[in-house]
Design a protein that fits this description.
The chain is of the alpha+beta class. The chain contains 5 helices and 8 strands, in the order H-E-E-H-H-E-E-E-H-E-H-E-E. The relative contact order is 0.16. The site of coenzyme A (COA) has 23 residues, from strand 5, helix 4, strand 6 and helix 5.
Length: 182
Protein backbone atom coordinates (compact mmCIF):
# COMPACT_ATOMS: atom_id res chain seq x y z
CA UNK A 1 0.00 0.00 0.00
CA UNK A 2 1.44 3.37 -0.90
CA UNK A 3 1.31 6.33 1.41
CA UNK A 4 -1.15 8.10 -0.85
CA UNK A 5 -3.59 5.20 -0.84
CA UNK A 6 -3.23 4.79 2.89
CA UNK A 7 -4.17 8.38 3.54
CA UNK A 8 -7.62 8.08 1.99
CA UNK A 9 -9.64 8.80 5.12
CA UNK A 10 -12.10 6.46 6.79
CA UNK A 11 -15.66 7.68 6.81
CA UNK A 12 -18.84 6.07 7.96
CA UNK A 13 -22.14 6.36 6.09
CA UNK A 14 -25.06 4.47 7.58
CA UNK A 15 -22.79 1.74 8.99
CA UNK A 16 -20.56 1.74 5.92
CA UNK A 17 -16.85 2.53 6.15
CA UNK A 18 -14.73 3.87 3.30
CA UNK A 19 -11.06 3.08 2.89
CA UNK A 20 -8.48 2.59 0.16
CA UNK A 21 -7.91 -1.00 -0.97
CA UNK A 22 -4.93 -3.01 0.23
CA UNK A 23 -3.70 -6.22 -1.39
CA UNK A 24 -5.28 -8.31 1.38
CA UNK A 25 -8.70 -7.13 0.09
CA UNK A 26 -8.31 -9.08 -3.17
CA UNK A 27 -10.66 -11.94 -2.23
CA UNK A 28 -13.42 -9.60 -1.02
CA UNK A 29 -13.00 -7.42 -4.11
CA UNK A 30 -13.30 -10.39 -6.44
CA UNK A 31 -16.48 -11.48 -4.62
CA UNK A 32 -17.89 -7.95 -4.95
CA UNK A 33 -17.12 -7.81 -8.67
CA UNK A 34 -18.67 -11.23 -9.33
CA UNK A 35 -21.91 -9.80 -7.93
CA UNK A 36 -22.01 -6.25 -9.30
CA UNK A 37 -20.91 -7.11 -12.82
CA UNK A 38 -24.05 -9.26 -13.09
CA UNK A 39 -26.34 -6.64 -11.59
CA UNK A 40 -25.96 -3.92 -14.23
CA UNK A 41 -25.27 -3.49 -17.91
CA UNK A 42 -24.10 0.07 -17.32
CA UNK A 43 -20.49 -0.83 -16.51
CA UNK A 44 -18.02 -1.15 -19.35
CA UNK A 45 -16.55 -4.26 -17.75
CA UNK A 46 -18.92 -7.23 -17.99
CA UNK A 47 -18.84 -10.59 -16.16
CA UNK A 48 -17.15 -12.12 -19.21
CA UNK A 49 -14.21 -9.74 -18.75
CA UNK A 50 -13.49 -10.75 -15.14
CA UNK A 51 -10.42 -12.97 -14.96
CA UNK A 52 -11.69 -14.54 -11.70
CA UNK A 53 -8.08 -15.04 -10.59
CA UNK A 54 -7.20 -13.87 -7.10
CA UNK A 55 -3.66 -13.10 -8.28
CA UNK A 56 -4.99 -10.70 -10.94
CA UNK A 57 -7.07 -8.87 -8.36
CA UNK A 58 -4.07 -8.61 -6.03
CA UNK A 59 -1.93 -7.26 -8.87
CA UNK A 60 -4.61 -4.71 -9.74
CA UNK A 61 -4.82 -3.42 -6.17
CA UNK A 62 -1.04 -3.31 -5.98
CA UNK A 63 -0.81 -1.27 -9.19
CA UNK A 64 -3.25 1.31 -7.80
CA UNK A 65 -1.04 1.62 -4.73
CA UNK A 66 2.11 2.14 -6.77
CA UNK A 67 0.87 4.93 -9.05
CA UNK A 68 0.39 8.42 -7.73
CA UNK A 69 -2.89 9.94 -8.82
CA UNK A 70 -4.58 6.54 -8.69
CA UNK A 71 -7.00 5.39 -6.01
CA UNK A 72 -9.15 2.31 -5.46
CA UNK A 73 -11.61 3.34 -2.77
CA UNK A 74 -13.83 0.67 -1.22
CA UNK A 75 -17.04 0.91 0.82
CA UNK A 76 -17.29 -1.78 3.47
CA UNK A 77 -20.21 -3.08 5.51
CA UNK A 78 -18.61 -5.40 8.03
CA UNK A 79 -16.39 -7.81 6.09
CA UNK A 80 -18.19 -7.22 2.77
CA UNK A 81 -17.41 -4.71 0.08
CA UNK A 82 -20.61 -2.94 -0.97
CA UNK A 83 -19.21 -0.24 -3.23
CA UNK A 84 -16.11 0.90 -5.05
CA UNK A 85 -14.85 3.98 -6.85
CA UNK A 86 -11.64 4.27 -8.84
CA UNK A 87 -9.46 7.14 -9.98
CA UNK A 88 -6.82 6.56 -12.65
CA UNK A 89 -4.62 9.52 -13.53
CA UNK A 90 -3.28 9.97 -17.05
CA UNK A 91 0.09 8.34 -17.71
CA UNK A 92 1.58 11.20 -19.74
CA UNK A 93 2.94 14.49 -18.47
CA UNK A 94 0.36 16.44 -20.45
CA UNK A 95 -2.63 14.47 -19.11
CA UNK A 96 -1.39 13.53 -15.65
CA UNK A 97 -3.64 16.18 -14.11
CA UNK A 98 -6.80 14.32 -15.20
CA UNK A 99 -8.21 11.34 -13.30
CA UNK A 100 -10.65 8.96 -14.95
CA UNK A 101 -13.23 7.84 -12.44
CA UNK A 102 -15.86 5.13 -12.29
CA UNK A 103 -17.93 3.43 -9.62
CA UNK A 104 -20.40 0.73 -8.66
CA UNK A 105 -22.52 -0.06 -5.60
CA UNK A 106 -24.20 -3.39 -4.85
CA UNK A 107 -27.85 -3.30 -5.84
CA UNK A 108 -28.87 -4.36 -2.32
CA UNK A 109 -27.30 -1.12 -1.05
CA UNK A 110 -28.58 1.40 -3.60
CA UNK A 111 -30.15 4.69 -2.46
CA UNK A 112 -28.36 4.74 0.89
CA UNK A 113 -25.94 7.50 -0.03
CA UNK A 114 -22.96 5.18 -0.55
CA UNK A 115 -22.10 6.38 -4.07
CA UNK A 116 -22.44 9.95 -2.92
CA UNK A 117 -20.06 9.34 -0.01
CA UNK A 118 -17.56 7.55 -2.29
CA UNK A 119 -17.63 10.37 -4.82
CA UNK A 120 -17.26 13.07 -2.16
CA UNK A 121 -14.18 11.30 -0.78
CA UNK A 122 -12.78 10.73 -4.28
CA UNK A 123 -13.15 14.42 -5.07
CA UNK A 124 -11.41 15.38 -1.82
CA UNK A 125 -8.61 12.84 -2.30
CA UNK A 126 -8.06 13.77 -5.96
CA UNK A 127 -7.52 17.43 -5.11
CA UNK A 128 -5.66 17.13 -1.81
CA UNK A 129 -3.64 13.93 -2.20
CA UNK A 130 -3.81 12.94 -5.84
CA UNK A 131 -2.72 16.37 -7.02
CA UNK A 132 -5.29 16.25 -9.81
CA UNK A 133 -6.99 19.18 -11.50
CA UNK A 134 -9.90 17.40 -13.15
CA UNK A 135 -12.02 14.25 -12.89
CA UNK A 136 -13.46 12.76 -16.08
CA UNK A 137 -15.86 9.90 -16.67
CA UNK A 138 -18.08 8.28 -19.22
CA UNK A 139 -21.66 7.34 -18.43
CA UNK A 140 -24.31 5.55 -20.48
CA UNK A 141 -26.81 8.07 -21.82
CA UNK A 142 -29.62 5.83 -20.47
CA UNK A 143 -28.09 5.58 -16.99
CA UNK A 144 -30.21 8.27 -15.35
CA UNK A 145 -29.38 7.36 -11.72
CA UNK A 146 -25.65 7.75 -12.37
CA UNK A 147 -26.17 10.92 -14.39
CA UNK A 148 -28.14 12.48 -11.52
CA UNK A 149 -25.40 11.45 -9.09
CA UNK A 150 -22.64 13.03 -11.17
CA UNK A 151 -24.65 16.17 -11.87
CA UNK A 152 -25.16 16.58 -8.12
CA UNK A 153 -21.42 16.32 -7.63
CA UNK A 154 -20.61 19.10 -10.05
CA UNK A 155 -19.87 17.14 -13.22
CA UNK A 156 -20.77 18.85 -16.49
CA UNK A 157 -21.55 17.24 -19.84
CA UNK A 158 -18.67 17.52 -22.31
CA UNK A 159 -19.86 15.52 -25.29
CA UNK A 160 -21.42 12.39 -26.73
CA UNK A 161 -19.42 9.31 -27.72
CA UNK A 162 -21.65 7.67 -30.29
CA UNK A 163 -21.99 3.86 -30.30
CA UNK A 164 -19.10 3.66 -27.83
CA UNK A 165 -20.51 0.73 -25.81
CA UNK A 166 -22.74 -2.30 -26.25
CA UNK A 167 -25.81 -2.89 -24.06
CA UNK A 168 -28.01 -5.94 -24.57
CA UNK A 169 -26.39 -6.52 -27.94
CA UNK A 170 -27.07 -2.97 -29.17
CA UNK A 171 -24.60 -0.13 -29.65
CA UNK A 172 -25.16 2.62 -27.09
CA UNK A 173 -23.97 6.19 -26.65
CA UNK A 174 -21.78 7.24 -23.76
CA UNK A 175 -21.74 10.78 -22.40
CA UNK A 176 -18.43 12.35 -21.42
CA UNK A 177 -18.64 14.26 -18.13
CA UNK A 178 -15.99 16.30 -16.39
CA UNK A 179 -15.46 18.13 -13.12
CA UNK A 180 -12.76 20.74 -12.48
CA UNK A 181 -11.55 20.18 -8.93
CA UNK A 182 -9.94 23.44 -7.98
C1 LIG B 1 -25.32 4.81 -9.96
C2 LIG B 1 -25.01 4.16 -8.60
C3 LIG B 1 -23.49 4.13 -8.39
C4 LIG B 1 -25.66 5.03 -7.50
O1 LIG B 1 -25.31 4.45 -6.24
P1 LIG B 1 -26.14 4.75 -4.91
O2 LIG B 1 -25.28 4.37 -3.75
O3 LIG B 1 -27.48 4.11 -5.00
O4 LIG B 1 -26.32 6.32 -4.98
P2 LIG B 1 -26.68 7.30 -3.76
O5 LIG B 1 -27.63 6.61 -2.83
O6 LIG B 1 -25.42 7.82 -3.18
O7 LIG B 1 -27.45 8.47 -4.51
C5 LIG B 1 -26.85 9.73 -4.73
C6 LIG B 1 -27.68 10.51 -5.72
O8 LIG B 1 -27.64 9.87 -7.01
C7 LIG B 1 -28.91 10.00 -7.65
N1 LIG B 1 -29.52 8.68 -7.78
C8 LIG B 1 -29.04 7.49 -7.33
N2 LIG B 1 -29.87 6.48 -7.68
C9 LIG B 1 -30.89 7.05 -8.37
C10 LIG B 1 -32.06 6.54 -8.99
N3 LIG B 1 -32.35 5.23 -8.99
N4 LIG B 1 -32.86 7.39 -9.63
C11 LIG B 1 -32.59 8.72 -9.66
N5 LIG B 1 -31.50 9.28 -9.06
C12 LIG B 1 -30.66 8.45 -8.44
C13 LIG B 1 -29.76 10.87 -6.75
O9 LIG B 1 -29.51 12.21 -7.10
C14 LIG B 1 -29.16 10.55 -5.39
O10 LIG B 1 -29.38 11.55 -4.44
P3 LIG B 1 -30.73 11.44 -3.53
O11 LIG B 1 -30.81 10.05 -2.98
O12 LIG B 1 -30.50 12.48 -2.48
O13 LIG B 1 -31.86 11.74 -4.45
C15 LIG B 1 -25.62 2.73 -8.50
O14 LIG B 1 -26.96 2.79 -8.92
C16 LIG B 1 -24.88 1.70 -9.32
O15 LIG B 1 -23.89 1.11 -8.86
N6 LIG B 1 -25.37 1.45 -10.56
C17 LIG B 1 -24.76 0.42 -11.42
C18 LIG B 1 -23.35 0.80 -11.85
C19 LIG B 1 -23.29 2.16 -12.48
O16 LIG B 1 -24.19 2.59 -13.17
N7 LIG B 1 -22.17 2.86 -12.23
C20 LIG B 1 -21.90 4.15 -12.82
C21 LIG B 1 -21.17 3.91 -14.10
S1 LIG B 1 -20.70 5.46 -14.86
Amino acid sequence: MSGEQGHASDQVVDGVTLRAAVVQDARALLHFKRIVLRETEFLLQGPEDLSDQLSDESALIDSFGRHSGCLLLLAWEGQQIVGMCTVVAGGLARSRHVGQTGMAVRRSHWRRGIASALLAEVRRWSLVQGGLHKLSLQVHAANLPARRLYERHGFDYEGTLRDEAVVAGQYADLLAMGHILS
